[in-house]
Amino acid sequence: MPLSLYEISAIPFISCLENLSKILDKAQAHVSSTSVEESTLTTSSLITDMRDFAFQIQRLCDMAKCLAVYVAQTEPIRREDNPTTLAEMQERIAKTIAVLKALDPKPVNNKEDKEVVMTIPSGEMKCSTGTSYVLTFLVPNFFFHYCMAYALLRKEGVPLGKGDYLGRV
To answer: Entry's Pfam families (predicted)?
Structure first.
């Protein structure tokens, strides 16, 4: 039986966001047990022209939210885009998980062969099908920001391993 659009997007997004919440717990424990300041983690980047850790969390949550808004065509989800603490990021992750868990798979799957139009600051982005949108835009962007968030915490000394990233904590 072929996988559905919902199964290749919402389910792994939920899993990764749940993993990320545990990763942030480890980041908080690292701050509590060392002299590392929380802001060192939340403002970390790999290079000066890269967006920081807080932005990575915002964007991966936004990518998950885009599944609901642009594919399932739910009402737009408005959120403040300014989490600065690990606790605020945890809250954002929890709200994003709740949105995905509440998502009905049928509207997602019904969009497989239909055009998706996303409103972006520079206008509109169109994908000829929901499948194309999910596989060539949402999933790669989600995992890019998920990977960057993990890498930034590793760079700052948070004791994480591949099992944390994959969810075998």
So the answer is: DUF1993 (PF09351)
